[in-house]
């Protein structure tokens, strides 16, 4: 008998590729859906000129400079220019007519659509970062741990929330993650191309925000750690050149995307000096309320949503150094440098942790990946740990997005104020109308922007600005008083006597009528960073006790 030939076997590689592509598509859909849910929160509308995020106006500086002056110089150097240019490109592509026909009358609509464009840039950057961390983790372990790492970044509440902001942090995190990816490739290949890419991504991270230069530790460590044995001996011949390529490409990428940092140095140095001094001194009452920056960031990372992975990341760092996992050392070194940097700065914002999250998640995946590659009962433990990381992230991210999608508390409070305050009565505020209070004036940009945009000022009632001055409050006696949590939360926690006296005077002469806003997250045991509360400031509305008079009206 003639033996029959075996049928040809179907190659497994296409099946594996289809599975990888399916995972990537699923991650993109999930990450995009979360980041688009509630994306329009607090956008400028008929009641307020500026977004309810205090920094989003600055993200439009590149577009405004181009539209008003035809100038590529953004005239704003507190950050690098890369994100400003990305937002400008998005605005030009999405709304060219708005750019070409900008007038005083069309300016409010321009602010609205451009602010949304800035947020879309953050959404795209956030989703791409999820894909990049998947590629990075897959390069280290394989598909299952990579999927877990990407899921964690897609779901972790801090990254989800900041992807709804038209600010620099999520975009910076993307380029930091790319720098880590190319640093790992550099360790494995030693090719000059990977040196160039790792350096370029470092420069772009710094161009998004200057402190992104800290990620340079990763490619430099990769250069020094690459190779082994005879290969290592050959590698050492080119170490100096590789370092020069990394640094040179970083400088070139920064210069190409933030050119006016050099071309308009007289402007840039003033803004940079301000930021450095701000980081050194901080905001005094925030520092007094939370003396330890390291503890502040630890609390914001632990709850809500990233607690288990943050704890596992500490174990991952130890494993990287003690078990000689060389490919993890550049990531671990960057995580340590970034933690020290934000932990010693005197400014307290949770958004400084966004650029740490990708490295933190990779390091937190280390012990889980070790369990998943072991025996059956080890794998069971790995799945339990993965669930412990994912469940709280999902829980708080869903609450975050649902809160963003609801009616903004400032709009609700404005309707209350219109209803309870007679037209001839006045309204008291601690400071000029800004992001943290209902838009009792259409121009809600705070003291500085209101000085520059006087033509848009339209108060719903006469306004009285008292500061936290008990004497001024008692002298002016406004009919209605609006108190934002941003006015007092840090000062009361720090025990400021002036703030305490003001609150006592307010409670003595006024009764609280309504309360709006507040963080929509359950089971958060401590105060979070103020940037968590931008969409949900705590707003208290007080009505003066006793009969009306000629000053307060009513």
Task: Tell me what the structure shows.
By secondary structure, the chain is mainly alpha-helical. The chain folds into two domains: 21-404, no CATH class; 409-544, no CATH class. The protein is built from 25 helices and five strands. It has helices at 12-36, 56-59, 61-69, 82-94, 96-100, 107-140, 143-155, 157-162, 169-189, 192-208, 217-225, 229-236, 239-257, 260-263, 265-281, 284-289, 293-322, 329-344, 357-372, 376-405, 409-420, 446-452, 470-476, 485-493, 497-509, and strands spanning 427-429, 463-465, 480-484, 510-516, 539-544. The protein is globular. The model is unreliable at 228-233 (pLDDT under 50).
Task: List descriptors.
554 residues, mainly alpha
Describe this structure in a few short sentences.
The chain is mainly α and 554 residues long. It has helices at 12-36, 56-59, 61-69, 82-94, 96-100, 107-140, 143-155, 157-162, 169-189, 192-208, 217-225, 229-236, 239-257, 260-263, 265-281, 284-289, 293-322, 329-344, 357-372, 376-405, 409-420, 446-452, 470-476, 485-493, 497-509, and strands spanning 427-429, 463-465, 480-484, 510-516, 539-544.
Question: What is the strand and helix layout of this fold?
Answer:
Layout: H1 12-36, H2 56-59, H3 61-69, H4 82-94, H5 96-100, H6 107-140, H7 143-155, H8 157-162, H9 169-189, H10 192-208, H11 217-225, H12 229-236, H13 239-257, H14 260-263, H15 265-281, H16 284-289, H17 293-322, H18 329-344, H19 357-372, H20 376-405, H21 409-420, E1 427-429, H22 446-452, E2 463-465, H23 470-476, E3 480-484, H24 485-493, H25 497-509, E4 510-516, E5 539-544
Parallel strand pairs: 1-2, 1-3
Antiparallel strand pairs: 3-5, 4-5
Helix pairs in contact: 1-6, 1-7, 3-4, 4-6, 6-7, 6-9, 7-19, 7-20, 9-10, 9-11, 10-13, 11-13, 11-18, 17-18, 17-19, 17-20, 18-19, 19-20
């Amino acid at each position: 008998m003639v033996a029959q030939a075996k049928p040809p076997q179907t190659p497994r590689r296409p099946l594996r590729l289809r599975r990888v592509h399916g995972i990537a598509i699923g991650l993109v859909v999930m990450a995009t859906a979360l980041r688009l849910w509630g994306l329009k929160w607090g956008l400028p509308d008929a009641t307020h000129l500026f977004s309810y995020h205090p920094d989003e106006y600055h993200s439009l500086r590149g577009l405004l400079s181009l539209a008003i002056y035809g100038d590529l110089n953004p005239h704003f150097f507190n950050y690098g220019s890369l994100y400003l240019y990305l937002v400008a490109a998005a605005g030009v592509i999405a709304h060219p007519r708005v750019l070409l026909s900008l007038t005083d009358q069309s300016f409010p609509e321009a602010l609205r659509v451009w602010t949304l464009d800035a947020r879309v840039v953050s959404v795209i950057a956030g989703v791409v970062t999820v894909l990049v961390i998947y590629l990075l983790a897959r390069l280290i372990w394989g598909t299952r741990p990579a999927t877990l790492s990407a899921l964690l970044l897609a779901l972790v509440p801090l990254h989800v929330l900041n992807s709804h902001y038209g600010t620099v942090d999520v975009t910076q995190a993307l380029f930091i993650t790319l720098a880590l990816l190319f640093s790992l490739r550099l360790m494995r290949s030693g090719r000059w191309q990977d040196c160039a890419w790792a350096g370029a991504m470092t420069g772009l991270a710094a161009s998004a925000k200057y402190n992104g230069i800290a990620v340079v530790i990763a490619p430099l460590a990769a250069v020094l750690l690459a190779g082994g044995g005879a290969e290592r001996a050959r590698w050492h011949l080119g170490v100096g050149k590789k370092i020069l390529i990394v640094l040179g490409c970083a400088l070139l990428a920064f210069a190409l995307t933030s050119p006016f940092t050099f071309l308009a140095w007289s402007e840039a140095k003033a803004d940079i000096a301000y930021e450095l001094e701000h980081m050194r001194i901080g905001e005094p009452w925030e520092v007094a309320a939370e003396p330890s920056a390291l503890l502040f960031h630890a609390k914001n990372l632990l709850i809500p949503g990233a607690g288990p992975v943050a704890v596992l990341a500490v174990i991952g760092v130890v494993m990287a150094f003690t078990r000689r996992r060389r490919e993890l050392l550049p990531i671990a070194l960057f995580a340590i440098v970034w933690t020290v940097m934000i932990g010693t700065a005197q400014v307290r914002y949770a958004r400084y942790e966004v650029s740490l999250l990708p490295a933190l998640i990779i390091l937190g995946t280390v012990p889980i990946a070790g369990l998943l590659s072991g025996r059956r009962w080890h794998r069971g433990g790995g799945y339990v740990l993965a669930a412990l990381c994912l469940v709280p992230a999902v829980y708080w991210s869903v609450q975050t997005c649902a809160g963003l999608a609801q009616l903004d508390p400032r709009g609700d409070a404005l309707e209350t104020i219109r209803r309870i305050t007679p037209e001839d009565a006045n309204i008291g505020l601690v400071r000029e109308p800004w992001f943290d209070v209902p838009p009792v004036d259409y121009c809600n940009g705070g003291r500085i922007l209101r000085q520059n945009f006087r033509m848009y000022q339209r108060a719903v009632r006469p306004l009285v600005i008292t500061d936290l001055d008990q004497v001024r409050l008692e002298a002016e006696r406004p009919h209605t008083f609006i108190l934002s949590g941003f006015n007092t939360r840090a000062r009361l926690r720090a025990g400021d006597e002036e703030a305490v006296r003001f609150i006592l005077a307010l409670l003595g002469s006024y009764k609280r009528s309504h309360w709006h806003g507040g963080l929509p997250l359950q089971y958060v045991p401590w105060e979070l960073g103020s940037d968590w509360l931008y969409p949900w400031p705590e707003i208290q509305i007080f009505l003066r006790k006793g009969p009306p008079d000629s000053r307060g009206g009513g």
